[in-house]
Amino acid sequence: MVWPNRPASSRHSLQPQRTPMPVHAPHLLPAPPKPHCHAAALRFTVAASAAAPAPRKAAVIVGGGLAGLAAATHLTSLSVPFTLVEASDRLGGRVATDVVDGYRLDRGFQIFLTAYPECRRVLDFPALRLRPFYPGALVFAGAGEPFYLLSDPFRLPLRSLSAALSPVGTLPDKVLVGLTRLRAAATPDDAILSAPETTTAAHLRRLGFSPSIVERFLRPFLAGIFFDPALDTSSRLFELVFKRLALGDNALPEEGIGAIASQLAARLPAGSVRLNARAAAIDPSGGVTLDTGETIPGELGVIVAVEQPEAEKLLPQLSSMVPEKPKKKSERSTVCLYFSADRALVQDPILLLNGSGKGIVNNMFFATNVAPSYAPPGKVLVSVSLVGSFADRDDAELADEVVRELGGWFSAGKVASWTHLRTYRIGFAQPDQTPPTNPAGRDPRVADGLYVCGDHWCSATFDGALVSGRRAAEALAKDRGLSS
């Protein structure tokens, strides 16, 4: 759900290039002035330079995803000068939205959880115009069967009663969901983050959930959040996210998930951001060297805020600073396909889960049921998510397979008229969150004057990225005697 949550650049396969939703960045550095040729002008320039004050020392932030933006906004609040360098042509990393023929396409399935405490502290929620999902899900159990509704028993008790005897889990399972929700909501974060750790699959068994509700509801639901159908994700992260689900809404910003990054980017000072500037080497004492050979001084320090694979390329020592993981492939990839339709086949703003155990679709929803602004007037946007890379199929083959499969969910005739808009392939959707983990976050200091942040350095959530960025900025300011 990337950050559910889910930082830096991502690979995706595109249709012919259309118009991306801009991340407003009035703070971009102006082009350098052309050299003066006239002798008098040159003499004036030299004299003016001699009289000008020495340039202020500054920090460098590498990466303009959520963590980098959080670090930048915190340094801005402390009046600490910095330059943020971003390798791509926009800010936001994986938290981005493209506008294609009037449709708003988030880069991968992402849902914003309103109960994230750091998000509540940092973001202007009213300005995002958040549109909530229905608190529950519809489960597809197999061809010829109806969709089964599972609702939050505390928010919609009457609708929950009607689903109590559905075949998606047993009656004790439904009671257990409510009890788990209550316990999670009442447990302090510190207790969750320090609890004994196991995998989510083992944790669900220990809690007493039956295989029926795990396979038909919990596995596809959590796979959509963690991109981990094996449920090897840390039980601590499961409990943390489950608490946020219990305490708040699932929502989408009216202008797309990229509006979160846009809001942060708009707060940065003029001249503080450089796009299309890829870091090639980092030396805390010498600054950041770009792939063009240019070096950007970072006298106050360097904050590395790129996603995990790129961070480990720039700083090879990082791999030795994290706990050793079992030698097991732990892919966190996803593919998101968007379709245009004339009408929604479900009317509620609700997530649909594949509880049949068959097929390649993990979850889907009609995005315009949640936020009508996601499509032009009179049109419907369909979002379909797969877990995995599906590298053996090209975009056209994958879209055809998805349409055929969803024809079994609804009817072939109703789905055949959908128009494929775009496919996003997110090769690195989340860092590995298998035990052992430290979702409370690691110390951002990795060397003198060198700091690291990102969802791989904290929890793989929107909140984890924002918290880690703030902590890195706080550490830099404290170490340089610049914090209040």
Automatic annotation (TrEMBL):
InterPro entries hit by this protein: Amino_oxidase, FAD/NAD-bd_sf
Residue ranges constituting the Amine oxidase domain according to the UniProt record: 66-476
GO molecular function: flavin adenine dinucleotide binding
Chain spans, region Disordered: 1-23
Secretion signal, residue range per the UniProt entry: none
Biased composition (Polar residues): 7-18
Gene3D superfamilies assigned to the protein according to its UniProt record, in alphabetical order: 3.90.660.50, FAD/NAD(P)-binding domain (3.50.50.60)
Matching PANTHER family: AMINE OXIDASE
Annotated protein name in UniProt: Amine oxidase domain-containing protein
